[in-house]
Amino acid sequence: MSPRRAPGPKASPQEAPAQERPPAARHHAELLRQMVLIRRFEEQCVELYSAGEIHGFVHLYIGEEAVAVGVNQALAPDDSIVSTYREHGHALVRGIALDSLMAEMYGKSTGCSGGRGGSMHLFDASTRFYGGNAIVGGGLPLAVGLALADRMRGDTRVTACYFGDGAVAEGEFHECLNLAALWQLPVLFCCENNLYAMGTALARAQVQTDLAVRAASYGMPSWPVDGMDVLAVEQAARHAAEAVRGGGGPHFLELRTYRFRAHSMYDPDRYRDKAEIEQWKQRDPIDLLTAHMRDAGELADGDLTALDTEVSAQLTNAIAAARADPLEPVEGLTRFVYSPEPS
Amino acid sequence: MTSAAAEKTTYREAIREALREALRRDDRVFLMGEDVGRYGGCFGVSLGLLEEFGPERIRDTPLSESAFVGAGIGAALGGMRPVVEIMTVNFSLLALDQIMNNAATLLHMSGGQFNVPLVIRMTTGAGRQVAAQHSHSLEGWYAHIPGLRILAPATLEDARGMLWTALEDPDPVLIFEHGSLYNMAGPLPADAGPADIRTAAIRRAGTDITLIAYGGTLGKAVDAADELANAGISAEVVDLRTLRPLDDATILASVRRTHRAVIVDEGWRSGSLAAEVSARIMEQAFYDLDAPVQRVCSAEVPMPYPRHLEDAALPQVADIVTAARQAVG
Lengths: 343, 329
What we know:
- The complex is a heterodimer.
- By secondary structure, chain A is an alpha/beta fold.
- Chain A has a single domain, classed as Thiamin diphosphate (ThDP)-binding fold, Pyr/PP domains (Rossmann fold).
- Chain A has helices at about 15-20, 25-50, 65-70, 90-95, 100-105, 140-155, 170-180, 200-205, 210-215, 230-245, 275-280, 285-295, 305-325; strands at about 80-85, 130-135, 160-165, 185-195, 195, 200, 220-225, 250-255.
- In chain A, α3 packs parallel to α10 (about 230-245).
- Chain A is globular, with a radius of gyration of 20 Å.
- Chain B has helices spanning about 10-25, 50-55, 65-75, 90, 95-105, 105-110, 140, 155-170, 220-230, 250-260, 275-285, 305-315, 315-329, and strands at about 5-10, 30-35, 60, 80-90, 120-125, 150, 175-180, 185-190, 200-205, 210-215, 235-240, 240-245, 260-270, 295-300.
- In chain B, the strands form three sheets. Chain B has a seven-stranded mixed beta sheet, sandwiched between helices.
- In chain B, β13 (about 260-270), α11 (about 275-285) and β14 (about 295-300) form a beta-alpha-beta unit.
- At the A-B interface, β2, α6 and α7 of A face α3, α5 and α6 of B.
């Protein structure tokens, strides 16, 4: 059996001075590390999927990493998260163990959902990660209810609820924004507007494409954010989460972003102009942060290579562990349909 | 009968008393739904509870079934014990996504991490001339879904006692209250307690045939048994009580004694709960049968408005008697 965790990467010449860098530089390095981790994780997923090692629907977040990483900076360990089927990034930055995420992709019993969920249904009670929901808009009512429970119990946590632009067309979106605002519940609505609901462009499906305006009509503070700029996302999320936590009721962020890959592994991506994709890639969130760090003198030569080496090693080990992990015995098929009888 | 004096009460009052007791016993319990507060409940079930428990615990919601049913699921995940009221089963279809895709699946999808201790109450059934969007009996659909527990209280004791047991269940429980039962009155012991939600009940013992019913059709089955007794046929009446999971043991034990069965179900015949019960009898007690299992179900039409057509669409006592006589031969 392979070791579950690799020995830490060897100290590189750049690493020691890195510890002495100013806090802002260290913070940016951490944001970069998280975005690179998401991207490499998903690039690995593509390879594993193509090789027939993982299956089902796999929806890639590549291009949208700044959203999950930036929003997560504003969340406390005790906050709750409700996510979508495009959730690898949310789960990784939340701190769900990489091994258990990879094992879930393999459907292994060591996966974060015991192998029963797969890519679209990652769950983790220990980090209050209430799942990838694969019904567009289906997670919003859960977030409203979690926030209602917190309010009724006197807890001050925030529930962060992710969904895409497609969900804004669903009835559940409108029902939930109304209810959350009516009851002034502590929900941070994070709309990841990547401009496409699967293959349908936002402007082809919705009359008002300025989504923050629509949320504002429910009487909640709401504003658009450059979702490719992790620092802008972080700043907006901190501001909004603080207001929610302070009793300011629900807030809405429209995070304007773009997915560089197709909707899912099945999608031939015929509905987007290649030039449009290339144009958005000019604003790759990892490149933007890297450029910022370079300008600020926060990036030493070899930092990126070292980061890639570190992340690659983690992934290699996670994959090896997931491959070796056990499948649940078929006898366990009907477990967890109902809770176990109290003994 | 318990030692406490029996007081005359109605099905409606029995449910209200059950809610009141739950709200008093557990501060995690709250009631949420359309017009449950100031209006007092569409059928008057929660009348007076807002005044007693306040608007935080008796929550009027906007007309948004998906949001407030889903919010019930979220609140259950968050440590509360919500009771969500949906006005009628027809309206519950607006919340079907939340019930099916979240309440019923979260425990399994999460590998056992997130159970949903939620109770949903709703009215079901016809008989009040409210036509084709307020009258259907769709509990059989819900009984198709693994992960849910489906209850159909048909007596005052069950109306009073099933709610508390449902609230103690770690998983989602749907309670279907037949609209024709709210005014049913009778004696209920003042100290009537929790009712078990796992077994069917024999409401009347008999030896010649088993009439299997639940909810709104139980009374009709009992009336049919009375008529059959006059004709010299001794009918046993089984009240299913819990529609999922079904209590096969009680059903089969009765059929093995009587060797004949009629299933009464206000749902449409095709793909009905009656079909499921019938199949189970066939699979497990075929050689004990002296006659084919009979079903008395609703006619396969959307429920019509005029009284005579509604009556014709629904299972009636005479239909049950005819089916039973046919089975007895």
